[in-house]
Every structure is written in structure tokens, then in C-alpha cells.
Design a protein that fits this description.
The chain is an alpha/beta fold. The protein is built from four helices and twelve strands; from the N terminus they run βββαβαββαβαβββββ. The protein has one domain: Dihydrofolate Reductase, subunit A (3-Layer(aba) Sandwich), CATH 3.40.430.
Length: about 170
């Protein structure tokens, strides 16, 4: 499975249930990577989408502890175990974990690839992605040239779990 996120210098991903910044080229990359695929997200992340609706042209699976939570146009699961059963029929390379913080942390052990947009700036953040630079089982396998959006510099970085640590 894949993780996909945009992070600041301190691996911040959000503040008060909103993204830290919207970079058009990052949003385009996100669309290209996830369209036609399975996206896994939490309830709070879904609520940040326009009208709180699932993403179009993707299979949306919402992980929520609330047993009564339902979403039109998405499958809702209530545990990691239930999620793993729900995605069993899909190729693992077609599954993208898209947030938020608790979903990333719960599913990191099941993922082998992370697509991270690293923004060279420190925002005020209250939600964070696990710092893969400090995780010995993760290694950078690809990195773009520096990109610029107004005064922000950013890079597209691909991390992969070292083969020594794959399950």
C-alpha cells in the first residue's frame, strides 16, 4: 500500500482540520496518483473535502471508530482489520492512504511506499505525518528537482520500505 501526503519541515500536515497549504502542482500529482485507485481516509479528512463528499473517480474507504457512521458513495470500515479485509481484492499498489494523522500512523506498518511532497517551510501545525527520515526501515528512492510555488520551495520525494523490513 502507498501513503501520500504533503509535509512541512517538521512533518506537519494540517492545522485545525485544514491542509497547511494548497500547491497546484502537488494537487495535480495527488490526482494523477490516486484517480482510478482506492483511497483510504478518516472521517475528519473526509469532512475537509468539498461538501464533505468522497473523491470522484476513486474507491473511497473511510476508517471511522463510530459504528453508526455512514457515507453515501463510500465504504465505511471500523477497524484496521476490517479495512484489510475490504482492500483484499485490490492490488496493493493501487491503494493510497491519504490521511489524516491517526490514519497514517495506524496504517504505516502496512505500507511499502510513501509519496511525500516536502515543503521547505515551517507552518503552524497540529497534525503530523510520521517522520520517515528518522525511521530506519524507510529510504529515499527518488527525489525531484526543487520546485517553487510563489516563495515556497518543495520537492516530490518517494520513500520505500527497505526490503529488509518488508513483510
Amino acid at each position: 500500500m502507498n501513503l501520500i501526503a504533503a509535509v512541512d519541515r517538521h512533518w506537519g500536515i494540517g492545522f485545525q482540520n485544514e491542509l497547511l497549504v494548497r500547491i497546484p502542482k502537488d494537487q495535480k500529482f495527488f490526482r494523477q496518483e490516486t484517480t482510478g485507485k482506492v483511497v483510504v481516509l478518516g472521517r475528519k479528512t473526509l469532512e475537509t473535502f468539498p461538501q464533505g463528499l468522497p473523491l470522484k473517480n476513486r474507491t473511497n474507504i473511510i476508517l471511522s471508530k463510530d459504528p453508526s457512521y455512514q457515507v453515501r458513495g463510500a465504504e465505511v470500515v471500523h477497524s484496521v482489520e476490517e479495512l484489510l479485509l475490504a482492500v483484499k481484492g485490490y492490488p496493493t499498489e493501487d491503494i493510497y492512504i491519504i490521511g489524516g494523522e491517526s490514519i497514517y500512523r495506524q496504517l504505516l506498518p502496512y505500507c511499502d511506499t510513501a509519496h511525500i511532497t516536502k515543503i521547505d517551510y515551517t507552518f503552524q501545525a497540529d497534525a503530523f505525518f510520521p517522520n520517515l527520515d528518522k525511521e530506519e526501515e524507510w529510504e529515499v528512492t527518488a527525489e525531484s528537482e526543487e520546485e517553487t510555488y510563489f516563495d515556497l520551495e518543495y520537492y516530490f520525494v518517494k520513500y520505500e520500505r527497505s526490503k529488509l523490513f518488508r513483510s
